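Example A, followed by Example B.
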Amino acid sequence: MEKFRKQIKRRLRTNVVLAILLVALFATLMIMDATNAWSTFLPAEFTGGDESLDFLAGFRTGFCTSLIGFAVVKIIVLSRALKDEKKLKAMYIRETDERNLLIEQKTSTASFAVTIIGLGVACVIVSFFSRPILYTLICVILFVSIVKV
C-alpha cells in the first residue's frame, strides 16, 4: 500500500504543478485578450475580425477554466484519499480490479475503431471542401493512432 501511496503523492504533485501552469496560461491569455495583443501577432486574415476574436477569447476562457477545474477536483480527491486510509484502500481496489481493467480495455478498443472510422469518413467528405481541414483531420488520425500504440 505504501507504493500506491507514493503513486498518489506523485499524482497530487503533478496535478498541483499542472494547475499552477494552467492558471499562469489563463492569466497570460486574459492579458493578451484584454490588451488586444493578438492583432499584433496575427494578421487580419487569421483573426476574422472582432466577432471571431470574441468567440476565440470565450473558447480559450472556457477551455482553460475547465482544465483548471479538473485539476483542482483531482487535487481535492487525491488529498482526501491520502488523509483517509479507507478512501485510499477503496481507490486502490478500484484502480487494480482486473474485471474493471478488462472492461476498460475492451471498451477502449471498440471506441478506438469507431473514432478512426469516423475520422476516416470525415476525411473523405471534407476532401471535397477544404484541404487545410483535411490535413488537420489526417493529423488527428495520426495523433490518435500514436496515442493508442
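Example B, a separate protein, is given below in the same form.
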Amino acid sequence: MFPIKIKQKAEKVFKLCLKKKIKLAFAESCTGGLLSSLITSFPNSSKIFSCGLVAYSNLSKEKMLGVSKKSLKKFGSVSREIAIAMAESAASEGNADIGIGITGIAGPGGATKNKKVGDVYIAISDIKNNSGLSYDLDLKGSREQIRLSSVESALDLLIKYILNHKKKC
C-alpha cells in the first residue's frame, strides 16, 4: 500500500516514539487519513497513537477541531495558520504529546487564485513543551503522489522534531 521508503520512515517514527514514550495524534485534510493508517499498520501502535481525525471540509475543521471561522476566512483552509491550529487541536483533544496538522490541495482540481495544486502545509504541535515546527510545501505530481509526498514530509518533520528534543515530551 505504501512505498517502502515511506514505510521505513514510519517505522523510525514508531520506534522513536516507543523509546521516548511519545503519544501522537493527527488532524488530516488532504491526506484523508493516510498518515493515521500508516502509523496504525504497526502492531502495538496504540502505545504511540492516540487518534486521527480527517477534517476535510471547513465545517468539520470548525466543529470537530475548533478552528475558528474567522481564521478560516482570513487565512483560507489551506494555510500554515490552519495547519498549526489543526495540530494544536489534535494534540489537545487527543491528549497526545505531539499533534500533526496537514492541509493542502492534492488536485487535480481545487486550485484558487491564491493557492495552487500541490500547496501543502504541515505543522507539528508539542503543547507540553510549548513548541512546534511547520513545513510549507510546493509538491508536484498526481493526486496520489501529492498525498504520499505529504505523508512522507509529515514523517520527516516528526523525525526531525523528535530527534532534536532529547527529553521526553
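On Example B: DSSP finds six helices and five strands in the chain.
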